[in-house]
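Narrative of activities, Objective 1.

The group set out to show that a structural description can be obtained from nothing but a protein's sequence at a throughput compatible with the screening campaign. Below is one input-output pair from the validation batch, recorded exactly as produced.
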Amino acid sequence: MKYTALLSFVLFAFAGACAPPSAPEAPPARPAALLDDEFGDYWYQGDAELTSYALEQARYGEIHQGEAVLIFVTEDFSRSKQVKMDFPDRSSDDRATVLKLNFTKKFTTGIYPYSMMTSVFTPIERGMYPHTLKVTTSSQEWCGHTFTQFNWRKGAYDVKLYSYFEEESDQTLKLDDVLLEDELWTLIRLDPSALPSGEIDIVPGTMYQRLSHDDWAIRKARASTADAGDGQRIFTLVFPELDRTLAIRFNAAFPYEIEGWEDTHRSGFGPNAPLLTTRATRNKRMMLDYWTRHNNADLPLREELGL
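Output recorded for this entry:
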C-alpha cells in the first residue's frame, strides 16, 4: 500500500492539533486495519472535517434558533490516561488511534445563551478496541455549568457528573458493558454497517440527559437503518419509555458524512410537556487544520463555514 513510504508526510500535521507548544510534531500511529487508500486519503491528510448546521433546538416547550458544529479528526490517544498524547512516540504501547468527535451546540433561550459540547473518542481499530474509550460533555448557561465524563475501564464505564443542581450535585457511578448513544456518531463515520439493529440496550446521549435531567440509566430502544433516498441513509433510535425518537441522516457512500438529524422528545418537564423536534440541517463543510488558524487573519474562515 502506498502509505508505507508516505506515512510521516501524510500524518505530520496531526501532532500539532490542539497540542501544547512544547510537543514535538510526531505523526500518530497508523492502525493496521481499515487503512485502505480511500480511508487513509480522507482521514490522514492532516486536516479535520468541520461541518456547520442550522439548529432548531427544543427547550422549555419552544423551538430556539442556534448553530451546531461537528468536528471529526483522528489523533493519538493514551489508553491508560485517556487523554490526547503529546509525545506518542515515547509510549507507543499505550497509544490508540481514535476518531475524535467534538460536537458543539449554541442557542439562546430568551435573554440567556446555552453553550454545549460533547467529545467522543472512538478507536479506529474496532476489532482491537470495540468500545469508545471516553465521552465528555459540558454545558454552560447563565444558571451555571455542568460536566459529565465516561471512561471505559475494566469492562465497564466509570461515570462522573458535576452539576450545580442540588438533586444531581456530584455523582459517580458505574455502567456495565453497554452501548452509548454518543458513540453512534463516530460509528457512522467509521463503519455504518456495524450500527445496531432491533431491540437494544443503550445509554441515552449526554446532551439529551443534560437538557432532560433524566436519570443515568440503561434504556431499551429500537434501532434501524433505512434508505432515505438521494444517496443517503437514516439511522433511527426509538426510546418507548422516553417518548423520544432520534434520526441521524448520513451519506451512504464513504466517508459517510452526517447531513443532519432530528430528535423528537418532550420539551419541558412533566407528562404534559409538548413533543417537539430538535432539528439540524447541514450548512457548510470544509477540511481544515483548524488548530493552526487562530489569528485575526483567519476570522473569514468562520464565514466560509457559515458561522
